[in-house]
Amino acid sequence: MTFGSLTRLPLPYDAESGRSARDSFPELSGELSDLVAGAAGCSPYLRTLMSRERDWLADALGRDPAATVSDELAALDGVPLSNLSARLRQAKRRVALLAALADLGGVWTLDQVTGALSDLADRATHVALTALVADEIARKKLPAATPEDAATGAGMVVLAMGKMGARELNYSSDIDLICLFDESRYSADDYHDARASFIRVTRKLCGLLSDHTDEGYVFRTDLRLRPDPSVTPVCLSMEAAERYYESLGRTWERAAYIKARPCAGDLAAGARFLETLRPFVWRKHLDFAAIQDAHDMRLKIKAHKGLGGALALEGHDIKLGQGGIREIEFFTQTRQLIAGGRDPDLRSPRTVEGLAALAAKGWIPHDVAEKLTAHYIEHREIEHRLQMVQDAQTQKLPSSPQEFDRIARFVGEAQTNAFRSRLESRLKDVAELTEGFFAPDSGVEAEPDLSEAAQDMIAGWHSYAALRSNRAQEIFKRMRPTILTKLHDAADPEAALVQFDRFLSGLPAGVQLFSLFEANPQLIDLIVDICATSPRLAAYLSRNAAVFDAVIGGGFFAQWPGTPELHRQLADRLAQIDDYERQLDAARIWAREWHFRVGVHHLRGLIDAFEAGAEYASLAEAVLTALWPVVVADFSAKHGPPPGQGAAVLGMGSLGAGRLNAVSDLDLIVIYDADTSETSQGRRPLDARSYYARLTKAFLTALTAPTAEGRLYEVDMRLRPSGRQGPVATSITAFENYQRNEAWTWEHLALTRARRVAGSVALGDRIETLRRALLAEKSTGPTVCKDVADMRARLAEAKPAHGIWDAKSGPGRLMDIELVAQFCALRAGHPARRVEAQLRAGVKAGILDAAAETQLLRAYRLCWTLQATGRLLADRISDIDQLGPGGQKFILASAGSPSTEALATRLQDCCAQAQHLIASTLANDGPCKDKTDHDASQ
Predict the structure, then answer these.
(1) What is the pTM of this model?
(2) What is the pLDDT of residue 829?
(3) What's the CATH code of the domain at 738?
């Protein structure tokens, strides 16, 4: 087929533009010349493309348009990443121009037009993805991936959704994408690096396709069809997506997956993923509940877009409005969902094919299918012309008579009134054919059936402070059916309702929060999720409901910004406040929002227990770093600037190691550098020792005092020299002398995790140099092994395990493994702070063998996961069964165990092995006795 076989022609609305375009192509004659004049005379956008691609188009009009498009797409292969943006945009201009002319001239059917645009989207997405993945691999950002893996996205796949998925892409369409990666291709150690790499690729991919440059753009991209887009990262693992759809997938998402197909990257992995979703999309039994769900969606769209009321052509939305494209799509997809589970022949992703299949199987009359098909094609062609005018993403009919004239000429109609009459008739016919299919709207949302106990609980809500005002009651009444329905759908409805009741009862007021919920319904999902899973977080929310503001802020679900950026944000906020008490309150509000964010990310599975631990520690360090100069400035106003060289705050314990849980306190030491003879220069001068002691107490008060906004952290300073008996701040000279001559072995163990977290950087560097020297010096102490063994015995007696689920205390559990890790670091004289690095130092020093390291890390990772996860959910977990199904599911998923019984067995086995290895290591002060056996078992 060539451009010689024209079946229709547009009429130039702007005659001068048409003549000018015709003159630009003197080599064309007859109908081809008329086609160019008509297209340019109706569309400024097409006129611009013709001018920009004149020579290419003149040649293309003499060839088969399908072959020309194929050649253009093939030329994209192998384009370097540095040139890809410009080349993709050139391909977009050419394919868009050729498809438009083939459409306007009737050379191509609607199916061929949308197919060519979809082919371009597929090719552009694939070459962009593979180029970006290749760049990640070249920069060694994607673990265990080779250059050859780039061709298949190294396990990443892009699913085309919506019209792109159905190969029905319209002329100026967004492309709806879901980006996933096959986590099974990566080891547990590489998983998080791989995920971060794929998230980067996805963000760059969107920019490469959608950014406007001097060359134009390729396609606007939309990633919001992915699971829970307000919560999840832009690229997520297939396993996480499967879990979401299995537990939370909704009817509209089932409908969306009718059109889904892999279009870029690892197409085989994408096909496997879609196969796993088949039971979710296609139910085994007839699913008439989908009708009401679809009807509700239609009503919401109309209400949201303001599309109700009588039909009027001016400004009418031909996609979403009455009798529009979406009505036909909903009609088709809903009937497919009803019966497609039983009959695979009904599962076509394409609207016209779906209508034909439904008619063939007797689900709709043949004449209805034929009418809707004809109306659909004409609606889509008008949609294309609306978009061709200025390359605008619009489906709205013109509002002025002049612009109606333009569209009429664009479709080849010289009489605008005739065009309007036919269009109005088609819209009304579609509305009549589809409206009766959907259930009528009752106007009142029904509440679920509740137990008598639940009804009694709800009856008491009117007495709560949050519901005392009439306005709060009115707003809550509108939300109540939705809330109760979502609570009723939780894994344990009664437990979820109890937690929601506690949340509601703890609210001091309701109007603002309820208004926030009503304007942002996703928050209802969040609070129900929290109530169904984490009693601790639900109780926290009732006391700190203002943290919901952060969820709406726009960056709540973005990646963790890192400690420097957090410090900058808080420091900037505090610098804008000139009152000390208000600064302390502001720090509490800010930290509370970020703390809540970490908990939600952990609860939703966006981060694991180790990432959460690092983020809690990062947040604490940012708070300490930003608040220290605020406290110093306030203290200096009374007593003068700090004497000497200032002070540094050391984080000890878990803070020093950079890993905290949701309720960790902070172990701190303050060290200053000043002679005892020095005094401050201020209104109320103090000698150096008194100055830093009182400054330290002021800092502790700033952290721990319960202001109107609560407290920031609990602080423990017992790791300072001489413990509770020593001064709260220690001079660097006294600290060094104490560590060299008086400190016990346990204090040297504590030193293995010390790290500056606030205060003087120079002093912090000096302390770090001293720390490293002390560890090397004390590593050869003759009593280190015995002291640690004795300390371990005392800990075991003083802090026994509280049942099998206590991951922290007891032989072979967190404290025990951390103790032997610190022993390894001390004995090796190594500066490592985290457990993993300390055990590795022990291996290098011959204290442990590799097999022992592996088994200890296995126990440590399980114990930390249980400890961090458990502290997010409740104060103490004596029995997992007490958490209810939601909490149990979260813990089991976090630990990767299929059942509580399996998890209990695994925990006991891991801890028993760890206990044996620790005892053996300390008994030998070197490689464990079972080294040969361990090596043999590897």
Answers:
(1) 0.53
(2) 94
(3) 3.30.460.10
